[in-house]
């Protein structure tokens, strides 16, 4: 029999009632927290068993406390109940300040456009975490993420956030809800990769960004050569979880093994990681990786895609002779199209070569349109098409294309910079300045964005705004010829002719400095004859920057000169 009198004396009922009341209050607070912050949705489920264990502990404490004969609720009870409330309040306050799982804010300019909601069939693939304990294996985790993203992007019913925007959260402890709002997606895929020799262990989980619940998770531990099969399994699990339909039917493959050579695959991943660094040494290393991959497996399409893109980048940056670099990029892109007719990335490369080297703007437009037919959500193709259309005078359509690129890739400084350039070329300075400011919010030390903004302010007479930006860019990279041309131009417009000439001499001493950049500084100094002499030199070597001459506002003061009209006609502008 239960001794009720003994229980009453030990006040177990008082303790139980007091604890349950406090626990109920804690659960109400946590439910409110979960409603406010989706990333906290799982906390009430975790708290419930902990509070149950606490209830048993409270009864034990009460029984022990009753042995001392206390006939009132004393300091022990009050401290325990207060502790529960303090913990709950701290959790609410902490998450209210951080907005999710952590204390770091989302990247600048990451908020979704007002009134734009996430599509239900949308996903962001976050960079998988390298768990190998070796920083040199980081490229493998990043490359696997990018390949998985590309596989999912082939699903017509699924909108996949771009790689650049998803990778903006790499290494940041930002709440899932914040990421989802920034990228306007309803689901987030995250995971980890561990590689040891020829064995890989990959963990992945699909999260509903609204509720915070895990829709699916799994772990794969296999040999490296099964990497494509793992991608297939993960992609199919996502299709099943989101109830998507495959265009080729339920049995159609998602991730087709593209090479039987694991080393060729590894070289492509290593090269892709090097390409993202965008400096001369990394670009040359990437080129070497892609050449080796193509040599090992000439039919490996991603290797050819990446090689064509690397060749174009080196030619565009003047790191290889223009005629040689662009010709080789064209040949490789055409070879890829022979393997994979309609390949979007190959068409983008061919469009870039037609644009920047051939000055065949009509041909470039056709290539970008073909790329978009194959890959409608290619931000690069949209932005490139927009800049072409600016030259055709189709300003509204041009800006719509580049705005679409920013919408697809909202956290890419490069896309915001392209929008800024397109707006300025379309003489929409106010919108252009806003776009360049957004680019700098995402990448404060991006010298291209700093330079473009400085040129825009200087050419419109806003010298107090232009000078600090030009000098900041030069302080970041005093060897960049574009940065030097901007600094010299701003000094010239400001009437600081001696400073402008000093920068010009410095620019002229840099091997391979563009004639177009030298012309820019002379334009600010009013040396019109010298400007045309330099532009003729640029034309003779087919400098890519000359393609912008027809719309570059810097040259508006001499737009009516017959020499300018003849130059523009020779470039092939409409």
Describe this structure in words.
With 574 residues, the chain is of the alpha/beta class. The chain folds into five domains: 4-98, no CATH class; 119-246, ABC-type transport auxiliary lipoprotein component (Rossmann fold, 3-Layer(aba) Sandwich), CATH 3.40.50; 278-369, Serine Threonine Protein Phosphatase 5, Tetratricopeptide repeat (Alpha Horseshoe), CATH 1.25.40.10; 377-442, Alpha Horseshoe (Serine Threonine Protein Phosphatase 5, Tetratricopeptide repeat); 445-574, Alpha Horseshoe (Serine Threonine Protein Phosphatase 5, Tetratricopeptide repeat), CATH 1.25.40. 63% of the residues lie in helices and 7% in strands. The chain has 25 helices and six strands. It has helices spanning 4-10, 12-36, 43-66, 75-98, 138-153, 163-167, 176-183, 227-242, 262-277, 280-296, 301-316, 322-339, 344-358, 361-374, 379-391, 395-408, 413-425, 429-442, 447-459, 463-476, 481-493, 497-508, 515-524, 528-540, 562-571; strands at 119-125, 129-130, 159-160, 185-196, 199-208, 214-223. Strands 1, 2, 3, 4, 5 and 6 form a six-stranded mixed beta sheet that branches. A hairpin with a 5-residue loop joins strand 5 (199-208) and strand 6. Helix 5 (138-153) packs across helix 8 (227-242), helix 14 (361-374) packs antiparallel against helix 15 (379-391) and helix 17 runs antiparallel to helix 18 (429-442). The longest helix has 25 residues, at 12-36. It starts with a helix and ends with a helix.
